[in-house]
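USER: Please consider what follows.
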Amino acid sequence: MKKLVLSVFLVSMFSFSIFAQAGADNQADIDAVKKVIQSAYVEGLQNEGNFEKIDNGFHPAFELLGIGKGDDMWEYHIYSWKESVKRDIAEGKKPKKDEEKVSIKFLSVDVTGTAAVAKIEFYVGEKLTYVDYLSLYKFESGWKIVSKIFYKFPEEKK
């Protein structure tokens, strides 16, 4: 009986140890995903126009997908978005000023192996403007944002 109890205890501890390690690994990936989004998307792309941060966090094949009228969709590639950032820098629109700065709030981050999705609230100043859904893959070089879909809140009528 003592051997049975000891065996059950050891198996339970071993199983707990494996699950605890898996949870720790998953939390490390969640933290890494959040860091990439904050650095590449918020700081690099939206607020600063920092191309090193953008290139470190976005995959070159990244696509922003949106919906148009009816059942139409459109795509916006990262190279086009970077060109837009270059124009903003040239026109003095970046880096953004305090009241124009973008910030985000993570609503959820889900990681399974080398795939992740993050749901975030996107604020311009203090105004909630979008809810973004960012997809990421973990490459040999680390986590990269590979796509985005979003919901834009309607403008308030004045």
Q: What stands out?
A: The first strand starts at residue 58 and ends at 67. The CA atoms of residues 129 and 157 lie 14 Å apart.
